[in-house]
């Protein structure tokens, strides 16, 4: 059983970036307004996410890292209307099978916090011997998840992921995208041992400021608002965002796509929108698009591979058509 779990975990968490994504989403689910990420060797040695969210009940700690343990669905009917990002209850379980996982957490009204250590989905003694029970500790409201020695027991992954700098770069890109989408949340990312953070975006930085800081002022001054609502067929559908105008040219398309607040990828949609831009941009120039789509949860298939970040949804062709035609309007108006 341990082997099966380890393999399953390796499929969900392919690299540190996947763990960071799951942990950031957990922090956002728990209403955090401050999320700090600390990394050692690109997260391979240490990957720590601290938040100021609701915290976790002490009673929930023993089963926290069991597969399918989630506080986000309480009854079967909830499955069709999950509002939060995660609902599979697999992230912490997976991570605990391939790392040494410590969770420190304090609820708002609790007198003190609790620290729990996990191995293979179960509570374990932090020092390798003694009690497995969560230990009381000091701390402020919120949760700190520390992942040490990721893939220590997955030799193939360890071989494949030797370059901490590359992992760090990927994680930074990921945090930047979440920070642009969640403009009211402060994000920081720091390398272990550095005195200053590599990335620091306080909640005073609005979306446009964040885009400026991450992608530069040339992009920030060439952005157009994008907003469209679905008609009868696409009831409940909406899209908001910011897209670059005809004066902006990137070497490669930057496409930040969030569906129901979850960062996803859609090659189809990217190609569709690139086609629209090809009428407005010189050859070789590529656009920037940040789009946040809201699709009724009942029309989104969330049961896809978490590390692939690909989602399927109903009416994908109609949605692509609607976005295409709106994008051409936005760009034409700007042209005029
Ligand atoms: P899921 O997010 O799919 O429910 P996870 O394995 O990611 O599953 O997390 C399991 C549970 O642990 C969550 O449902 C939530 O109750 C709790 N949890 C995890 N991270 C946090 C956090 N940062 N703050 C509060 N609760 C958390
Ligand atoms: Mg989760």
TrEMBL record:
GO molecular function per UniProt: ATP binding; ATP hydrolysis activity; ATP-dependent DNA damage sensor activity; mismatched DNA binding
Record carries keyword DNA damage: yes
All residue ranges annotated as the DNA mismatch repair protein S5 domain in the record: 211-332
One GO cellular component term: MutLalpha complex
Annotated compartments: Nucleus
A GO BP entry: meiosis I cell cycle process
UniProt KW keywords: DNA damage, DNA repair, Nucleus
Origin: domain of life: Eukaryota
Family membership: Belongs to the DNA mismatch repair MutL/HexB family.
Protein name, as recorded: MutL family protein Mlh1
Organism: Schizosaccharomyces japonicus (strain yFS275 / FY16936)
Upper classification of the organism: Eukaryota, Fungi, Dikarya, Ascomycota, Taphrinomycotina
Chain's gene name: mlh1
First-to-last residue of the parent protein present: 15 to 350 of 700
